[in-house]
């Protein structure tokens, strides 16, 4: 509720300032013509509003002695700063390239390494190096040092996946909210001895506090959706998408539900896979599988209305969230 109120209070004034200062991101010239006509001039960097809502409400309500809370705040702010740099460069040079891919990846890599270092060195996480397979009671893989590249893959992959999905008004906001809402429940039960024993999942002390951070993400995204719903008054930009994706990944790593994140966030996985398939197909055969990637643009090119695509993708996200939550009980 606090993050929701914060976003409502600061949202409209910041959008007005961004509009007056012409803080508007360039629209892809190779995208649907409709976008160039309707979305040009829409303010970007709305992720600043989301991050402020998340960080301020977390600092107000969370136990600040908890190392997991500080890890999430570090990931959120660091990736948000990286995305902010990318958005500023896009605005400054008036193109959709922004920060070069190698620099963006390097930044994500450094942030991911630091986050994992904090968890390894400063937390008492007994199961940090384990990988739990959903739908099975006792199927656990001990990753050892492989945990580090795996954790980096999860953080970098999730932040980029949300970034790719953020291409239509409200498309990424609701799925992020659903994933955060799911992990609000998951982090609470994993950090509760009674519920974790009943559900036969690992009990991890102190991670229940992450439900506060997850709840703040839900509230901030809900408030942002008020302004981001079609037709959007502001875009979250890389500032929001990189931060939100990386934060969700860090939560999944801490509560040891990385594979469940891939299920609940399956829409983000689908969007990413569509881009990978498109690139591989074009490089190998010179032909494109989709009319345009990510896949939401493919359906636009086929003539689907933007609102139709967004709502149908939301429905898919809801179904995947239910499937992911079912892993808590179906073992």
What brief labels describe this structure?
single chain; about 325 residues; mainly alpha; two-stranded antiparallel ribbon; globular
Topology:
Blueprint: H1 2-20, H2 33-39, H3 47-61, H4 67-93, H5 101-122, E1 130-132, E2 140-142, H6 147-165, H7 173-190, H8 193-199, H9 210-228, H10 237-255, H11 258-264, H12 266-285, H13 295-301, H14 306-326
Antiparallel strand pairs: 1-2
Helix pairs in contact: 1-3, 1-9, 3-4, 3-9, 3-10, 4-5, 4-10, 5-6, 6-10, 6-12, 7-9, 7-10, 7-14, 10-11, 11-12, 11-14
Distance between the termini: 34 Å
Helix segment count? Answer: 14
Mean pLDDT across all amino acids: 92
How many strand elements? 2
Query: What oligomeric state do these chains adopt?
Result: single chain
* Overall tally of domains: 1
Strand content: under 5%
Which structural class matches the secondary elements?
Answer: mainly alpha
SSE topology string? HHHHHEEHHHHHHHHH
Task: Record the strand order, biggest sheet.
Answer: 1-2
| Main sheet summary | 2 strands, antiparallel
> Gyration radius, to the nearest Å?
19 Å
As a percent range, the share of helical residues equals 55-70%
Poorly predicted tracts of residues: none
User: Which overall shape is indicated by the principal axes computed on the Cα atoms?
Assistant: globular
What would you say this structure looks like, in words?
- With 331 residues, the protein is mainly α.
- The chain has one domain.
- Helices cover 69% and strands 2% of the residues.
- It has 14 helices and two strands; from the N terminus they run αααααββααααααααα.
- The chain has helices at residues 2-20, 33-39, 47-61, 67-93, 101-122, 147-165, 173-190, 193-199, 210-228, 237-255, 258-264, 266-285, 295-301, 306-326; strands spanning 130-132, 140-142.
- Strands 1-2 form a two-stranded antiparallel ribbon.
- Helix 10 (237-255) crosses helix 11.
- It is globular.
């Amino acid at each position: 509720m606090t993050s929701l109120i914060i976003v409502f209070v600061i949202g409209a004034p910041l959008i007005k300032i961004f509009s007056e200062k012409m803080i508007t991101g360039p629209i892809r010239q190779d995208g649907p013509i409709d976008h160039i006509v309707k979305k040009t001039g829409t303010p970007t960097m709305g992720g600043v509003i989301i991050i402020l809502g998340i960080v301020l409400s977390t600092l107000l309500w969370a136990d600040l002695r908890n190392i997991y809370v500080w890890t999430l705040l570090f990931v959120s702010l660091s990736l948000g700063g990286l995305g902010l740099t990318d958005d500023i460069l896009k605005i400054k040079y008036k193109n959709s390239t922004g920060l070069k891919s190698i620099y963006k990846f390097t930044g994500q890599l450094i942030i991911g390494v630091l986050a994992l270092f904090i968890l390894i060195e400063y937390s008492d996480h007994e199961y940090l190096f384990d990988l739990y397979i959903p739908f099975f009671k006792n199927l656990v893989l001990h990753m050892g040092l492989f945990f580090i590249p795996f954790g980096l893959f999860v953080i970098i992959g999730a932040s980029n996946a949300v970034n790719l999905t953020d291409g239509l008004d409200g498309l990424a906001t609701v799925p992020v909210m659903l994933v955060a809402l799911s992990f609000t429940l998951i982090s609470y039960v994993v950090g509760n001895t009674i519920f974790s024993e009943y559900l036969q999942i690992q009990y991890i002390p102190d991670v229940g506090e992450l439900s506060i951070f997850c709840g703040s993400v839900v509230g901030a995204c809900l408030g942002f959706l008020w302004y981001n719903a079609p037709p959007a008054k502001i875009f979250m930009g890389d500032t929001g998408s990189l931060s939100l994706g990386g934060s969700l990944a860090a939560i999944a790593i801490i509560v040891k539900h990385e594979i469940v994140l891939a299920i609940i966030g399956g829409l983000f996985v689908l969007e990413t896979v569509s881009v990978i398939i498109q690139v591989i197909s074009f490089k190998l055969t010179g032909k494109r599988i989709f009319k345009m990637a990510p896949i939401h643009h493919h359906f636009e090119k086929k003539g689907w209305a933007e609102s139709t695509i967004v709502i149908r993708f939301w429905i898919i996200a809801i179904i995947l969230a239910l499937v992911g939550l079912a892993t808590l009980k179906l073992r």
